[in-house]
Design brief:
mainly beta, globular, 3 helices, two-stranded antiparallel ribbon, 10 strands
Length: 138
């Protein structure tokens, strides 16, 4: 992916804060001070999802607004075990987690309709360098 294709969301100053949010289309990466991804997120609430073509191949444009049954069916077909994810299930949303990867799928529930995928996220590697470097000046 071309570095110019990535939007760095945040203040462009020498004293910028960490972690930083980088956005390419509907792909969001939260990057910590040591340059490791602490969170990967794909926004799916739009009509189409745009991902970096250099990463996924092809055009990088995919249909969005997937239903809960579509996601569950795809996970089952791939042999990927999953379970409901209680911490992100409340109000007008429900969620599930793919057990092998820890990926979370959060669905919006509109009245009288099947839940529709709103966002999908992957946890980072658990690195918390910002906690280790708190108080240090860089």
């Amino acid at each position: 992916m071309e570095i110019l294709d990535v939007l760095d969301v945040g203040a462009m100053s020498r004293n910028r804060k960490w972690p930083r949010l980088f956005v390419y289309g509907d792909l969001e990466l939260s990057v910590c001070r040591c340059r490791k991804a602490s969170l990967i997120c794909v926004q799916t609430w739009r009509d189409v999802v745009e991902l970096p073509a250099s990463v996924v191949g092809g055009t990088g444009i995919f249909p969005a607004r997937l239903r809960h049954t579509d996601v569950v069916s795809a996970l089952d077909k791939a042999g990927c075990s999953w379970e409901p994810y209680a911490p992100l299930t409340f109000g007008n949303q429900c969620s599930l987690a793919a057990i092998p990867s820890g990926a979370t799928f959060i669905f919006e529930i509109a009245e009288g309709e099947e839940p529709v995928l709103n966002v999908m996220g992957l946890p980072g590697d658990g690195d918390d360098c910002s906690a280790r470097t708190a108080g240090q000046h860089h």
